[in-house]
Amino acid sequence: MIEFNNISFRYPGSNSGLNDINLKINKGELLAILGQSGSGKTTLLKLIAGFEKPDSGIIRVNNKDITPLSCQQRNLGIVFQDYALFPHMTVLENIAYPLKLKNIDKDSRLARAAAMVQKTGLSGKEQMRPANLSGGQQQRVALARALIFEPAALLLDEPLSALDAGLREEMRQEIRQLQQQLGITTILITHDQEEAMSMADQVAVMKNGCLLQVDHPTNLYHKPKTVDVANFVGRANILPAMALGAHRIECALGQLQVHAPELKAGQPLHIMIRPEHWRPIPDEYNTFAVEHLNTVFWGPSCQATVMINGTVIKAEGRFHTAPTHLSIHPEHIHLIS
Ligand SMILES: Nc1ncnc2c1ncn2[C@@H]1O[C@H](COP(=O)(O)OP(=O)(O)OP(=O)(O)O)[C@@H](O)[C@H]1O
């Protein structure tokens, strides 16, 4: 388990840092930290790894306060973006290296490294040097090296960003399987939404050094709590709106029926409609005649850009012809107040 309690931090002489971070990652869970460049992801990682000390607050790993400890004393496995493997060492030597630092005898080192080679699918590559491995294999070596001393938690800093798209997808699953098999509490830093959503038990969205929302991937996608999160996670149509009373709102599209018995007339809010939830046929609810602007073919689906009462809307689906009408079920209109 990893806990951040009221963590605040400023880089000396700057306004950048982290603002009152509270976060809990349960034992064996993978939490992805997602955010745009400069949002504070790496800073958070530096604080847990011990490269920087917080100005205030406590970080605990398995209920132990690690805030005063040095990097070495924290017993955390870290995989960086560029792997940082030792070029002159073989795969086996690279993996065994952290055990050497801990003065574990050579036979035990090599036996444990050999077991880790098996777990990470590197059998047959033991005597090769990093330069002769593919990107995915180098990444596995880095992962094996980070896990060899059975760390209390694993920190992954954009570990897949150097790989091409196909391999990245494969490695996502491999890392997730290994993480679950070992039951190791893990923090994954990424700016790739798909990576965060597909690998994590929980995703934390960061902006300007603050946590905007920490939630299960499906909640984050379907029930973002703020307009910032809705805008950042996935594609969305987001419009300002005004409540007209229970189950009814008004926005630039016109009046819409929504699923919200608690709404009070005059309440300002925003609505979010995911493009894939529009249906290209009239329905008994919320149906609009649309002016079709263009359709882009994406393979499994298309994205249509249309105009409804002067407002540009994106819809996605398997449209065989340009839609003339779009309808949206009240259940698929998410309200953000
Ligand atoms: N050593 C430093 N001194 C001063 N400011 C810094 C330092 N390192 C980072 N920052 C600033 O802190 C903020 C957060 O940076 P951080 O590297 O944590 O962002 P990030 O989300 O990891 O970005 P990226 O995805 O580009 O790595 C940024 O505004 C950055 O400019």
From TrEMBL:
Listed InterPro entries: AAA+_ATPase (IPR003593), ABC_SmlMolc_Importer (IPR050093), ABC_transporter-like_ATP-bd (IPR003439), ABC_transporter-like_CS (IPR017871), Mo/tungstate-bd_C_term_dom (IPR008995), P-loop_NTPase (IPR027417)
One MF term in the entry's GO annotations: ATP binding
Keyword terms, alphabetized: ATP-binding, Nucleotide-binding, Transport
Entries under SUPFAM superfamilies matching the protein: MOP-like, P-loop containing nucleoside triphosphate hydrolases
Domain ABC transporter span(s) in chain numbering: 2-233
Swiss-Prot/TrEMBL GO biological process terms: quaternary ammonium group transport
Record-given protein name: Spermidine/putrescine transport system ATP-binding protein
